[in-house]
Amino acid sequence: MLKADAKGRVALSGALTSKQVPELYRSSLPWQKHGLPDVIDLADVERADSSALALLLEWRSWADAAERELRIINVPRSLCVLASLSQIGQLLGWRAVDFESDEDDRQCCA
Q1: Alpha-carbon distance 33 to 65, whole Å?
Q2: Cα 3 from Cα 81, distance rounded (Å)
Q3: Which part of the chain is the MlaB-like STAS domain (predicted)?
Q4: Residue 101 pLDDT more than 80?
Q5: What residue ranges define each of the domains in the chain, with the CATH number in brackets?
Q6: Is 45 in contact with 13 (CB distance < 8 Å)?
Q7: Alpha carbons 42 and 16: distance in angstroms, whole number
Q8: What φ, ψ does residue 4 adopt, rounded to 5°?
């Protein structure tokens, strides 16, 4: 689920998998014309897969094209790990995951 506020922040919740991502993508298409949010908050994302990374990369490319900064915060560790293993994290501006840590740190790659 996607919830926007008036402060330029969008919060995603629930699953962010291949089942939900196409609808999220369609609902975000107006951002290309009317402007992206400043912040994408993933604090309430319960599950995510590689399609979530694809969506985040697409949004990042829109931000780059518009010369805007897009902050992605509260990233689930599992998504950080997937991004690090696939070397996509660098494209999203995330730092590498500490694979020695077992903590579910939502700031692991921000």
Answers
A1: 11
A2: 25
A3: 10-82
A4: no
A5: 2-85 (3.30.750.24)
A6: yes
A7: 9
A8: -105, 150
pTM: 0.86
- pLDDT (0 to 100) of residue 70: 92
1 pLDDT higher than 90: no
Instruction: Determine contact, residues 63/31, Cβ cutoff 8 Å.
Output: no
Taking only the tens place, the pLDDT of each residue in 22-81 is: 999 999 999 988 889 999 999 999 999 999 999 999 999 999 999 999 999 999 988 988
Q: Are 39 and 71 in contact (CB under 8 A)?
A: yes
Q: Identify the residue whose tokens are 């990042």.
A: 60
Q: Please name every residue paired with 2 in a beta bridge, in sequence order, or none if there are none.
A: 12
Residue 12: half-sphere exposure toward Cβ, Cα within 13 Å:
27
Which residues, including other chains, have CB under 8 Å from residue 71's CB and lie 6 or more apart? 38, 39, 40
Report strand pairing: 71-73 vs 39-48: parallel
Of the listed ranges 4-13, 78-87, 99-108, the one predicted with least confidence: 99-108
Residue whose entry in the numeric block shows the structure tokens 């599950």: 47
